[in-house]
Amino acid sequence: MEIVRCINEKSQKSRSIRYSLLILTLLVVTCYLFFGFASCIPLEGDVASVWKKSKYPIGNNEATVTGISITTLPLKTSYTIGESLNLAGLVVTAYYSDGSSKTITDYTNSGFSSTTAGSKTVTITYKGCTDIFTVMVNVPGKTLSSITVANDPSKKTYNIGESLNTSGLVVRAWYSDDSTTIITDYVIGTFNSNTGGEKEISISWGGKSASFFVTVNAKTWTVTFNSDGANTEANPASINVAEAIPPPTVNLPTAPTKTGFNFGGWFTEKNGAGTEFTAATGVTASVTVYAKWNSYSYTITFDGDGATTQANPTSKTVATPAITIDSLPIPPAKTGWLFGGWFTGKNGVGIEFNGSTTVTSTITVFAKWNPYSYTITFDGDGATTQANPTTKTVASPATTIDSLPTPPVKTDYQFCGWFTEKNGAGTEFIASTVVTGNITVWAQWKQTEITGTSAAAVVVRYVVGGSFERGKDLGGGTNTAPVFPITMSGFYMGKYQVTQKQWQAVMGNDDRIAAVNSGQDLGRGNNYPMYYVNWYDAIVFCNMLSKQEGLSPAYRIPGKSNSTDPADWGTVPTSSDATWNAAEIIPGSMGYRLPTEAQWEYAAKGGTVQEAYTFAGSNNVADVAWYSGNSGYKSHEVGTKKQNSLGLYDMSGNVFEWCWDWNGTYHETPTTDPVGASSGANRVIRGGSWSCNAGNTRCAYRLNNYPNGRDNNVGFRLARPSF
Q: Quick one: 514 and 647 in the same domain?
């Protein structure tokens, strides 16, 4: 098993790489001399595939193709029978979901046949998207000159909405030798019967076109505006419109007037009955509409006087003979104040206006605003030491507390925030939560350290959710770009790397243990980290351990009947396997799993603490890591170096740790609990190892490996979701 290589290894390893490159170069030159350059050198995609064997970070997140278009036709569009399709000059552009586009050449084509003469449609396909163009296949010795309509269709007159009927249509093709033939595979242009009039219908075939004409008849409808007793009639009193699809609308006439009333619109029945007729109403037949007349009325305007949210509605109307409004509007709201009713003057001055107030004219009334004071009680819910202070007050005009109190403390538990119900139920209460009444919030607690119930006795520690800058070296070293803020939910992280004893407890004395115990001793014993395991081995271990402890397994493989039982998955692959690569996390599962790359880096840096260190727990690599400078080029027992602030050991050094993610370039979205690239060739490994220099054990350093790679310096640690 080959050791995963790290940057800046000893010069002897660098010389070995240079010798390998020299041999490869000589082979390429030899291949060029004997077989030709084109047959020797791989295409760009092949080159990329070769270099994917590098353990350096690789990104390949392409946006989704949304469509393609033929932007330039091929130079050759006319053929004779027997000729092959020539796409020289064809330019095809692909369009992507991120708004970008590019010219593509790896499309496929179909539909061309030169065994018979005629117009041929060629379909271009790329990633499920298509576009077409047509070419002409001619009989040798003659070319298409034109096409003509020999006989028009039998049906020449249509009603609105009818479809085109080409029965009786005869189209002839004329060639350069004056010969002619009747064609039937022509293309009919668009026929629009939504409006009336004469319509020209185009016909195309072999790059030539012809046309014929049909007539669409439309009915004429009249909208009559009956002013229903007005002193001054509407102008005009009627409007004619032509039938169409969608139904036509009309511009309403100048409104009529009637002494003692307000005009209230047009309706299909008198006195405002029926359906209202507006400028947006579609006309589908001749119709008479009637003016609606309203008596004069008084308007009461409800002024919120600085409200954040106004009353709804902001005005009401009292029409003769009514003397009061039907009801008051929904009260307004003003941040930091309580609504105290409506008054005829500002600040509660004047007469209070309520639902029984007699209205004798149009009037504006104003909201009165009263101050408030609310108390927030912080209940430690069994804390050893209560929050300080245990209560806070929010008084007008403030809507939030100035800051949260000093958190409570509970032995062997992690404080995870304040919630409106016990045990983290309800809504989380934070410093920016708007307070609208007296309230008690309760501390949420998560057990700091939990030991598994199986013989493996895996220990996990709780990592409180929070935010961090992904890729940033907190000790002032080199960042891994792009640095971007990420928010993480709480989760449990393995206290130690999975040991050889734990592997045996779950998997037995299998071939992986045999691999560790054969050949050179690179660290053997119960408390040494397990290695010689690939990514596939790791997810099998996770589900096996979850089953032993009665937990819902985290992983299933769609290509293996969606089973969560590794026994149904078959033998662990020793080469990259598409079916196993499609493994997915089961939503809501509570079993053991590999951490995501974001979870790993967040925990390595200390979670919410985000220690100002380059390495996991120190700026001195020797304090926390077994690496090439102190390891003697072998692994060591777990937990023998200094832990970080979360109580996690060996997050830097000893052995690399598999993560769930496909390797890919960092992206700025999503910003909460990212799970990495959607696909790739390699999986992420983090933390560095006993064989690496100090720089490769940094918390921000990234590396990757084939999912089937079983290396002597790669192991893993476990994670679990919050519960």
A: yes
